[in-house]
């Protein structure tokens, strides 16, 4: 087939979520609820970090950026997914698909960098507490966050541009519930080996390097905590870091399965869609709750904000 003379597809059809006979409405209602919880939980984190000067610290600055990422990450595809279900029309225009893919991976890659920054801050705070304020200054934290976002952008932009310029002539059906790189490349014409190799190298660099850095940070933290003479201080340090490790385990475990593959052309995406639910729906909802559920500073800030919104609550 002469791909240069083909008529490129102007829209794609998204297959949607893994089908469970008779439970489709329940699944989509659950997704809507998870999305609302994600917006409320992450929006609350951003709001209290901005308004409460007691939370003007590196950890909460990085956490607020993670929350902004989660809001953008889920908004890239969940509203479209829900709209398609309500309208019974699973189509998405070609350029909408490219934009969705671009922002999905921008937020996704940036997440690994931000999680790495959080582990760096925990390392400095626990292993070098007296130097924490002088090392993690507001200027340094701002530069690190800017580097994380720009790093996410430049990690994916070249691959997205190449994907956008591929011919799509033989099929326009994407076996996923959003425009993910694997299912999109599967229906693309032409030679995709360079794009797949570039994507694999980026995934290895970003995912593996951030995981290694995070694990090394926590090994140093573990060693430092075990040297503490006070049991209460040990428990406090472990409590602070345990939530971060829960997020790391959930995120890296699922992403390793989906994206660290040298080739996607011959992959089956049934299982991948099921695994993708974990890091596209569950993790963004859990992030604000996992990070804050045992954090007294966050709880106090939320209580103060609620009391300001409902003045008579303190007297009840």
Name the average pLDDT: 83
Tally of contiguous helical segments: 11
State the separation between the terminal residues, measured CA to CA: 75 Å
By secondary-structure content and strand pairing, the structural class works out as mainly alpha
Membrane topology: Multi-pass membrane protein
Domain G-protein coupled receptors family 1 profile: 41-291
Family: Belongs to the G-protein coupled receptor 1 family.
GO molecular function: G protein-coupled receptor activity; olfactory receptor activity
Protein model, in words:
It is a single chain. The chain is mainly alpha-helical. The protein is built from 11 helices and 3 strands, in the order βαααβαααβααααα. The chain has helices spanning 24-51, 58-75, 78-87, 94-127, 132-135, 138-164, 181-186, 193-226, 231-259, 270-292, 296-309; strands at 11-14, 91-93, 173-174. The chain is globular. The model has no long low-confidence stretch (mean pLDDT 83). It comes from Pantherophis guttatus (Corn snake).
List the helices and strands and how they pair.
Layout: E1 11-14, H1 24-51, H2 58-75, H3 78-87, E2 91-93, H4 94-127, H5 132-135, H6 138-164, E3 173-174, H7 181-186, H8 193-226, H9 231-259, H10 270-292, H11 296-309
Parallel strand pairs: 1-3
Antiparallel strand pairs: 1-2
């Amino acid at each position: 087939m002469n791909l240069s003379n083909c008529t490129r597809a102007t829209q794609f059809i998204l297959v949607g979520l893994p089908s469970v006979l008779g439970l489709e409405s329940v699944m989509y209602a659950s997704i809507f609820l998870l999305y609302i919880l994600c917006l409320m939980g992450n929006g609350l984190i951003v709001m209290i970090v901005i308004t409460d000067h007691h939370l003007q610290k590196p950890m909460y600055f990085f956490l607020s950026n993670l929350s902004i990422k989660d809001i953008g990450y889920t908004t890239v595809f969940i509203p479209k997914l829900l709209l398609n279900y309500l309208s019974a029309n699973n189509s998405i225009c070609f350029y909408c698909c490219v934009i969705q893919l671009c922002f999905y991976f921008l937020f996704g890659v940036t997440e690994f960098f931000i999680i790495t920054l959080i582990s760096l801050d925990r390392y400095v705070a626990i292993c070098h507490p007296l130097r924490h304020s002088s090392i993690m200054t507001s200027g340094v934290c701002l530069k690190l966050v800017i580097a994380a976002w720009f790093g996410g952008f430049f990690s994916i932009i070249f691959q997205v541009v190449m994907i956008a310029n591929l011919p799509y002539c033989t099929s326009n059906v994407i076996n996923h519930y959003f425009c993910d790189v694997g299912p999109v490349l599967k229906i693309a014409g032409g030679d995709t080996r360079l794009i797949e190799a570039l994507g694999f190298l980026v995934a290895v660099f970003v995912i593996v390097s951030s995981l290694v850095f995070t694990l090394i940070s926590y090994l140093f933290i573990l060693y430092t905590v075990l040297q503490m003479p006070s049991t209460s201080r040990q428990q406090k340090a472990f409590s602070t870091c345990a939530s971060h490790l829960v997020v790391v385990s959930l995120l890296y475990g699922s992403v390793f399965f989906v994206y660290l593959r040298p080739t996607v052309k011959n992959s089956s995406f049934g299982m991948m869609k099921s695994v993708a639910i974990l890091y596209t729906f569950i993790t963004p909802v859990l992030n604000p709750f996992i990070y804050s559920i045992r954090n007294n500073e966050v709880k106090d800030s939320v209580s103060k904000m609620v009391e300001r919104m409902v003045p008579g609550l303190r007297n009840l």
